[in-house]
Amino acid sequence: MKNIRIEEDSMGKVEVPSEAYFGGQTARAQHNFQISKHVVPAIFRQALGMVKLAAAQTNTSLGLIDKKLSKVIVQACEEFIDGKFDADFTLDVFQAGAGTSYNMNANEIIANRANELLGGKKGEYKFVHPNNHVNMAQSTNDVIPTATRVATLLSIPGLLQSLNNCEETFEKIAKKHAKLIKVGRTHLEDAVPITLGQEFDSYKEALHKAGEFIANQSEDLQTLGIGGTAVGTGINTHAKYRETMVKNLTKMIGLHFQSGKNLTEMANNMNGFLNFSASLRSLAVNTLNICSDLKLMNMGPKAGIAEITLPGVQPGSSIMPGKVNPSIPECLEMICMQVLGNDKVIEIACQKSNFELNVFCPIIMWNLLQSMEILTNGLKMLNEFALKDLQINEKQIKKLFEESLCTATSLSPKLGYALTAEIVKTALKKEITIKQEVLSRKLMSEKELDKLIG
To answer: Is 202 among the residues known to form the active site?
Structure first.
């Protein structure tokens, strides 16, 4: 006979592994949703546990749960947050809408552990019930969006740290090479002079703005819908539950949370997540542009621009000996593409509200947290394995500049647009520099020319 226990819910009897801390509803979800083997990141499980812990504290302070039960529920919540029951919290991210399965998975684990602490058996719920006690004054519809907001906010410092580290490295490179003049390019063609410092400072500034955008958009996530329960009306909650819950989460997490003005709106409008995802999309787009430039500047080593050399991190070919590829930027580009795809999923999910609820928070949560995780790790990888040991090829930069046409614009105010254009065309035809062509025409002295174009 299988090592199982029998639990009974509103739909009838259900088999549950005997030693499992989860219960019948989780077992049903495991049976129904065998889709992808993708599970939520630990940060969401921790955030969900924090919501359950704050709820237990709130209900206890309001006199709704006695202190004996509260003590074991709180301990079970803390153990859940610490990851003690990770083996029991493995539901597929693709599941029934709203995240009811996640909510009940947590409720059942916490209830079973609390009962165990009181000498009860798993699945009997003799002392602590998943719905009546652990889920008291809550609904999936306010718990899962709140946990998603908390998980997102807890993930932001790591992302911003990775971003700031890249900024600092770009800034160091920019300052070190502030006077290194190189070819500035527009349309991938020689344009006008620029310093390598100015170029790399632009990358630093782009990332800085992206970080500010992320920080600004995160502020809305500190407004919570907890206490709204099913449709934002607060049914089945104590009059002081909402404000007490927000205070407890603020104290526990160290962020300043506030309650939304209209909790029904917060249940059916997921645009806070959409707007935050837009800030991740913006970072991904900026990062794609920077990676593209790094790859082009690295192109070579002999038959390309080769203005920089990216650190070699692995052999670049299974057939071409000695070939080294820009593997780090390539990986980060794929990460950014995934983020852009995730953002699109979030956009579509946010469009799908019906009346008082948007049921697609689970897929919003998973895509949002995945985007943050891979961007955090990807930017860390870029800084550690590409930027810190980036080689600037000064001789090549100077050679390309001397042979380029980008000094022509500096001549235009002195010689006029038409004559300068003619000089450019002639220099190209003769395969000589613009400086050589100007001197051959005796249009100005070498000293005057050097002062004008460097």
So the answer is: no
